[in-house]
């Protein structure tokens, strides 16, 4: 029917079956079916001829014909290849496809992939980040044009409902059949929903897919309370999602403990305390008997007679293998489900493989992605005729659940005969650590870490590689004694076969080989080996192995801050100070190269501020500032900003509170008391910042520097002024400290606290500088923090008077600023100081380096030159222009759209504009002007115009302000991959007017 003689640009699908002597030829012209030739078997003739008559797009119907093969350009020989069908396109399924391409299987097989969801494979490990602003596109596992480039066919939204092993076909829900020669089942798992009455109510959800998350988010908009049924890994992830959505969140668990599979009783108890401290309700030993509707929402009823009211319920009570297809076609399953596989991941049918969470190996389902990846590699190797075997997998896991570090590895419960355990608990910081060792104390068998998992990589490597334990195994989890050598296992002790990255099966030897072949930075190692590109948990260890191999090759491991400066931060500081350099241009012209980047520009801006304390928005300094410092406010994930006025030591007058309340109400800002005893106002738009701050300054406030790497807060109790236990005026000293050091720029943010007695209500020992009153004066504590790795401060000096205390703090802070690395907190800096706390006392108290007076003078210079950056900004109308977005009405008939004058775009920076409804970012870089879509890649926030400009290898780039993505200015593409990140427009300058090409020109440019 129709035409069967192809023209030059026609697409032709052909299929030959030499056994049955069937032949098919389908000719497509301009996306519609133009001709059909069927010989030997014509069951589809009626469907195809009907499609011919409609002149509608053909692809939706005939691509699913059971014997069609890859499209062939007319004139080429149509070749019949065996068909490899993959059912399931999740993380494991896509990893299998990538490994097939690596082994050349896409050239041996026609590969057809069926995905049940409307999305291609995406990163389920980081699924909860969807609620933190990540888009579906940014979670995608598919790089570039993977399928088109490799001739693999992906059919999304096509659930497979049946497998006919005799006819070798699979059938989709729409009735289409596809022939297979080899079949891979990567169907994954489905969420288990307990058979509770009411589980189908409109407010009940599961937490598994992006569509699930969209449904949860939609329902949460009209909800105040959410309950998660299930207290395992996935349940706590779901609880985190509800918490991010702003709901009062509860977790209900049938077992006595959270994460009962991974954690022992003590670890689970510590995790519970930490989660409850975050405001999440935890209800264990609860058997839900019913979910019932009420007038105000729903109620969960439990077997013990108690109830819990809620507006929505999320089931996350575990997973079950998705094995229905295998069951229906007669493949062997386990007693409790799961598709039984051998060591090559073959099922009971030698032409059918199963990988991932649907597969059962020796009676065990592996519910983590790394074992699934391992199965995927084994299956592709078997198809390629290569030797490989799945022999089980390490189920160690390290996660951050609701902001809490949790890790479990090996025999965490100590079930091995004769096993012994060592435990260490830090009650105030809520840290629990446990290791399980063999009966002879020589081998590590497993462990649990809650609250601090920094030793995880070391301990797992010791367990996996049977590395002999030290004579005192407990030292592996006990805190380091001041001045002692670090406990971390040296990578030199690891064998070449040690698996560093379990997601991509990368060994120490693989990384060393990559370094030997020229991969001399972490980015190159990742690209070459894929190590640390999966879950990312091995990043630190990958870096250690890389540096170990570089040192072994005699290559000095440099501390260069970036490609533009061959110096460390300390060296940059001394170059600026000694040579009295006052601008970035002076520094890079003498000691660097290129135009700078998002690493060196803010670093140099901070160093210049530490040394000379000049106004950050001077024309020479503005291009150095990240978006927070450029607009003196903290950017949020939606592109709005938060505002924190200073309240020294938490003091505020009634009039001040009223003024803040009126401003929050007037601008509809969300208000929250911070951990540092201040008020944070969220949701201010960029153009609102000046008028809000004018009202705050009129009310007596000044900037709180919550946006900068500077002093944030000095927390205090009420001390002897009000408290019956207070022995010193802690509030008064806290006010003095905050007013002295406010605005001080440093390598990292600094927090302080002052407690009026040893009851420690201000939590001074968890701060960079902590002060506790005694009846003789003040005890000074240094180098604590409450960050990613909590650490108590060390007692530095005792019974100090006010003047001595301030003198020591002056010296300490300036010495830290001089010598710390980029973004290094005081705790890490102190740990890396050779000689530790004793050396720091020698420098600060004994003046062993003879620089004490110099350090005090430098601090006094900073104190004397302090300015409220918002007050200075509001007094300069020229500076306020950067807080606006240019609104331009498009002239539809014009080829070029007039936007603004050249001077309205800051030099070496950008400004936002709206051309009708289209947000555009205009950048002025050197003599060139660029126009890109004003959008954070992968999101919708119009913030790209606020990014830092620089270059990468000479290529002009802008670095997005939210997630630090590098984008080429000339075409809007990612620097690393070349993929389109945002749209780009042609720009010209006519006189002093900046003009952007019309929409028609844009489309034409993109097409070319």
Structural summary, described in words:
The chain is an alpha+beta fold and 1008 residues long. It has eight domains: 11-73, no CATH class; 83-190 and 321-383, FAD/NAD(P)-binding domain (3-Layer(bba) Sandwich); 193-317, FAD/NAD(P)-binding domain, CATH 3.50.50; 396-463, FAD/NAD-linked reductase, C-terminal dimerisation domain (Enolase-like, domain 1), CATH 3.30.390; 569-625, no CATH class; 626-703 and 868-880, Sulfite Reductase Hemoprotein,Domain 2 (Sulfite Reductase Hemoprotein, domain 2, Alpha-Beta Complex); 709-867, Sulfite Reductase Hemoprotein, domain 1; 885-1007, Rieske [2Fe-2S] iron-sulphur domain (Rieske Iron-sulfur Protein, 3-layer Sandwich), CATH 2.102.10. It contains 30 helices and 52 strands. 45% of the residues are buried. Mean pLDDT is 87; it is low at 59-79, 481-488 and 1000-1008.
What labels describe this entry?
52 strands; FAD/NAD(P)-binding domain; 5-stranded parallel sheet; 30 helices; 1008 residues; 8 domains; 25% strand; alpha+beta
Number of strands: 52
Please bin the fraction of helical residues: 25-40%
Global mean pLDDT: 87
Instruction: Give the CATH level 1 class of the largest domain.
Output: Alpha Beta
Please tell me the total number of domains.
Answer: 8
């Amino acid at each position: 029917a129709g035409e069967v003689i192809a023209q030059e640009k026609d697409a032709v699908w052909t299929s030959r079956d030499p056994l049955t002597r069937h032949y098919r030829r389908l000719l497509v012209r301009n996306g519609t079916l133009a001709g059909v030739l069927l010989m030997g078997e014509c069951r589809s003739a009626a469907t195809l001829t009907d499609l011919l008559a409609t002149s509608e797009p053909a692809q939706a119907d005939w691509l699913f014909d059971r014997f069609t093969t890859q499209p062939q350009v007319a004139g080429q020989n149509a070749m019949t290849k065996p068909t490899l069908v993959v059912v399931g396109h999740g993380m494991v399924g896509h990893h299998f496809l990538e490994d097939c391409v690596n082994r050349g299987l896409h050239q041996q097989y026609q590969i057809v992939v069926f995905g049940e969801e409307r999305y291609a494979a995406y990163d389920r490990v980081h699924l909860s980040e969807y609620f933190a602003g990540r888009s579906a596109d940014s979670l995608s596992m598919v790089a570039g044009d993977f399928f088109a480039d490799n001739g693999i066919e992906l059919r999304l939204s096509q659930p497979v409902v049946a497998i006919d092993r005799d006819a070798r076909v699979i059938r989709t829900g729409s009735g289409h059949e596809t022939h297979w020669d080899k079949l891979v089942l990567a169907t994954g798992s489905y969420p288990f929903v307990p058979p509770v009455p009411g589980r189908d109510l409109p407010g009940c959800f599961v937490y598994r897919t992006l569509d699930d998350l969209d449904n949860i988010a939609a329902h949460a908009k009209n909800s105040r309370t959410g309950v998660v049924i299930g207290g395992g890994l996935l349940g706590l992830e779901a609880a985190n999602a509800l918490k991010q959505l702003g709901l009062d969140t509860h977790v209900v668990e049938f077992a006595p403990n959270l994460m009962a599979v991974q954690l022992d009783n003590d670890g689970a108890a510590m995790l519970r305390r930490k989660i409850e401290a975050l405001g999440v309700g935890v209800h264990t030993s609860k058997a839900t008997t019913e979910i019932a509707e009420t007038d105000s929402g729903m109620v969960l009823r439990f077997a013990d007679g108690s109830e819990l009211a809620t507006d929505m319920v999320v089931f996350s009570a575990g997973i079950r293998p998705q094995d229905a297809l295998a069951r229906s076609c007669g493949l062997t399953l386990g007693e409790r489900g799961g598709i039984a596989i051998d060591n090559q991941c073959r099922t009971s049918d030698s032409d059918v493989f199963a990988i991932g969470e649907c597969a059962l190996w020796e009676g065990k389902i592996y519910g983590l992605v790394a074992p699934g990846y391992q199965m995927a590699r084994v299956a592709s190797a078997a198809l390629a005729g290569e030797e490989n075997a799945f022999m089980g997998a390490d189920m160690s896991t390290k996660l951050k659940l609701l902001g809490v570090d949790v890790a479990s590895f090996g025999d965490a419960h100590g079930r091995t005969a004769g096993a012994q355990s060592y435990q260490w608990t830090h009650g105030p910081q809520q840290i629990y650590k446990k290791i399980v060792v063999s009966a002879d104390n020589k081998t590590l068998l497993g462990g649990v870490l809650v609250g601090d998992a920094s030793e995880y990589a070391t301990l797992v490597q010791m367990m996996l590689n049977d590395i002999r334990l030290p004579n005192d195994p407990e030292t592996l989890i006990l805190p380091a004694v001041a001045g002692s050598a670090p406990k971390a296992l040296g990578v030199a002790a690891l064998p070449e076969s040690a698996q560093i990255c379990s997601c991509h099966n990368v060994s120490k030897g693989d990384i060393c080989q990559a370094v030997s072949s020229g991969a001399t930075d972490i980015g190159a190692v990742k690209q070459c080996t894929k190590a640390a590109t999966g879950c990312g948990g091995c990043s630190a260890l990958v870096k250690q192995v890389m540096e170990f191999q570089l040192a072994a090759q005699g290559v000095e491991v440099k501390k260069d801050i970036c490609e533009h400066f061959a110096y460390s931060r300390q060296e940059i500081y001394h170059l600026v100070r000694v040579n009295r350099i006052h601008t970035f241009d002076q520094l890079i012209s003498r000691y660097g190269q290129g135009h700078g980047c998002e690493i060196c520009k803010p670093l140099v801006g901070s160093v210049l501020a530490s040394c000379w304390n000049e106004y950050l928005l001077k024309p020479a300094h503005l291009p150095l500032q990240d978006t927070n410092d450029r607009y003196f406010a903290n950017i949020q994930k939606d592109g709005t900003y938060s505002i924190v006025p200073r309240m020294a030591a938490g003091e505020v007058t009634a009039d001040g509170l009223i003024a803040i309340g009126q401003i929050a109400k007037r601008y509809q800002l969300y208000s929250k008391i911070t951990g540092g005893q201040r008020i944070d106002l969220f949701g201010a738009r960029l153009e609102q910042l000046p008028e809000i701050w004018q009202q705050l300054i009129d009310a007596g406030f000044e900037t709180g520097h919550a946006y900068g790497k500077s002093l944030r807060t000095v927390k205090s109790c009420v001390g002897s002024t009000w408290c019956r236990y207070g022995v010193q005026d802690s509030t008064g000293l806290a006010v003095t400290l905050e007013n002295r050091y406010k605005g001080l720029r440093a390598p990292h943010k600094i927090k302080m606290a002052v407690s009026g007695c040893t009851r420690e209500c201000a939590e001074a020992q968890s701060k960079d500088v902590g002060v506790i009153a005694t009846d003789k004066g003040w005890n000074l504590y240094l180098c604590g923090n409450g960050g990613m790795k909590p650490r108590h401060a060390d007692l530095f000096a005792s019974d100090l008077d006010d003047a001595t205390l301030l003198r020591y703090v002056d010296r300490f802070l300036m010495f830290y600023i001089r010598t710390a690395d980029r973004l290094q907190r005081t705790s890490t800096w102190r740990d890396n100081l050779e000689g530790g706390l004793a050396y720091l006392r020698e420098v600060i108290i004994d003046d062993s380096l003879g620089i004490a007076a110099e350090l005090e003078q430098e601090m006094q210079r900073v104190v004397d030159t302090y300015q409220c950056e918002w007050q200075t900004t509001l007094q300069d109308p020229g500076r306020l222009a950067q807080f606006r977005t240019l609104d331009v009405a498009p002239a539809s008939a014009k080829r070029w759209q007039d936007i603004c004058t050249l001077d309205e775009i800051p030099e070496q920076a950008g400004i936002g504009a709206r051309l009708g409804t289209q947000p555009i970012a205009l950048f002025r870089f050197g003599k060139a002007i660029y126009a890109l879509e004003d959008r954070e890649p992968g999101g919708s926030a119009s913030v790209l115009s606020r990014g830092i400009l620089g270059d990468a290898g000479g290529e002009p780039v802008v670095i997005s302000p939210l997630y630090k993505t590098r984008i080429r200015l000339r075409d809007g593409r990612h620097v690393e991959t070349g993929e389109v990140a945002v749209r780009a427009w042609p720009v010209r300058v006519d006189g002093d007017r900046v003009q952007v090409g019309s929409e028609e020109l844009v489309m034409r440019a993109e097409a070319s």
